[in-house]
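Amino acid chain
________________
===
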Amino acid sequence: MSERVHKYLSRVGRGSRREAERWIGDGRVTIDGRRAVLGDKVDSTSQVAVDGIPVVNGAVDAGHSEVLIYNKPVGKIVTRSDPNHRPTVFDDLPIHKHGRWVAVGRLDINTAGVMLFCSDGNLANGLMHPRNEIEREYLCRVNGIMSESALERLCSGIEVDGHVCRFDSVEVRPGGGYNRWFTVVLRQGRYREVRRLWEAVGGTVSRLIRVRFGPVRLPRDLDRTQTRIIDRELQRTLYQLANVSPS
């Protein structure tokens, strides 16, 4: 299946379609060694490069592939630009010299914690794909008295918008009272899934922090809005979990 090269570059996370069109016009994109022109199409066998850096089968060249950990604060949205001029997480990210960062999923404006950004669009897509069932762990402060039966329902499955959603586990944190802390683990990333599951059993989430995505745990010494590049060993683990091969 073929697609226009500017759409391909956008899909794999190298830039927006407009950016890719400008790169093509400036002669920065090649296909199979020849200079690309607007309207050119590529398929799975095409060898595409930007500024001489290959993009093979949707993956950034392994020497330039990086994964960034980001500690998202409450109040920032996960989008590149906002018509209402609200602060976005991309304002805090370093510039990637060989492409751009692709967010691995989203956290809503009122959720804090660990996010991953990849320079390889294929890796980002693989980490988000439901079939790979990568664990997400959250720390939740919930308003309401949660009975044992309610916690059992959260793990057995509750229908939300036509989908059966569930936590893999729910751990009650120390403490008591009307506001309780829980640690939950799930393998999906649907919109507001954690909050909506708690709402289904009569609870209201007043604080929500993602503390782990797959094997990547939020570092204790990483302050809010700060970023860090993960090491190569952990990056290889992410490629394996995503069922993606770096080029």
Observations:
- The mean pLDDT is 89.
- The chain has three domains: 3-57, 64-131+221-241, 135-213.
